[in-house]
Amino acid sequence: MGQWEQQIRANALAIQKILDDAKEIKDHPVLVGTLSADDKIVIQIEATGQTIHTTLGALNFGTFNPSLAGVSKGDIIVFDGANWINIGVGVDGYTIEADNTEASGLKWVPKSSKESFVATPGQTIFNLASNPANVDVWVDRVNQIQGTDYNYASGVVTLTYAAEENSLVIIRKY
Asked: Is the pTM higher than 0.90?
């Protein structure tokens, strides 16, 4: 678990402890009103029995902006390692995929579908029902490398080497 994840977990536990106490002490004036950054709070860590006296402002929430100004329906807020950022809602037909080259670690990609074929003896050509921009190919659960093991153009996958009879060829389209 990363440092920011540990801090968020610790903060979440502290807030849960406050909420649990609020259920037991319903008329406590600080818990009924609005908390400011300077209000004193007491955090008890159940696992160790340690008690921490601090202020709400001292808790580390990163640079998360709780007002979320400018956020729209469906937007997704993620932590980039230093700040909270909005990657937006995306568009219909897209899904989120992990991508460590993106600042957020995530990106929107077209939703994929697949077609499956059972190869005939010596078969190398597989005609797809649609013409997607990209494909990934597996033959009998072995990922094939584009340009080495297969080529793709205009809805047609051509294997470099013929598939064995009854080989399962799965083509992911995206």
From this structure: no
